Amino acid sequence: MADEEADVAEEAVFLALAQGPCPPRSPLHWALDKAFIIFLALTLTLLTLEAR
């Protein structure tokens, strides 16, 4: 029974990854991604500096 469940999980992962490439992202999504990464970096920096 465990082998059958493992086979199903592997097939599900393969099917999820085999859907093809993602469509290109718009410039708005690029800008939002960059802003989020910068916000995340600044937040983590402030938290680490405050922890001292």
List the helices and strands and how they pair.
Elements: H1 2-17, H2 27-50
Instruction: List the helices and strands in order.
Output: HH
Radius of gyration: 20 Å
Unreliable runs: none
Arithmetic mean pLDDT: 80
Distance between the termini: 52 Å
Description:
The chain has helices at residues 2-17, 27-50. The longest helix is centred in the C-terminal third of the chain and has 24 residues, at 27-50. It has a domain at 25-52. The relative contact order is 0.07. By secondary structure, the protein is an all-alpha fold. The model has no long low-confidence stretch (mean pLDDT 80). The protein has two helices and no strands. Helix content is 77%, strand content 0%.
Entry summary:
The chain is mainly α and 52 residues long. The chain has helices at 2-17, 27-50.
